[in-house]
Amino acid sequence: MALSNEMKQIAIDLINQFGSTAILKKPSSSNYDIASGTNIVIAGTQTTHKAHIESYSSEEIKGLVQSGDIRILVATIDSISVSKDKIIFNDIEYNIINVEPIIMQDTVIAYTLQVRR
Length: 117
Hints:
Structural class: mainly beta
Distance between the termini: 37 Å
């Protein structure tokens, strides 16, 4: 476990030093409160993260990966909703298509996001 925590910190340090800025946009949501009979609105948020951003190679463009998709490596996000959350990079908003955790010794070190315009 100690090694995985060290690796996570190394990933965070490297991405913070050499990464680009990306914004995770979580939309507003609402939950119905049965007791009060009202909708409770939870405001959307935007958080800034450092990320390593790269295009997929031509060999990787098949199946779920389409031409124009981008791979983003980020180590400081706690939770991501593929169906609702968005990533903003260079003032362009991307849909999150797939999220893959990078795991070492049962600890998530970082996430690889596949995003699409």
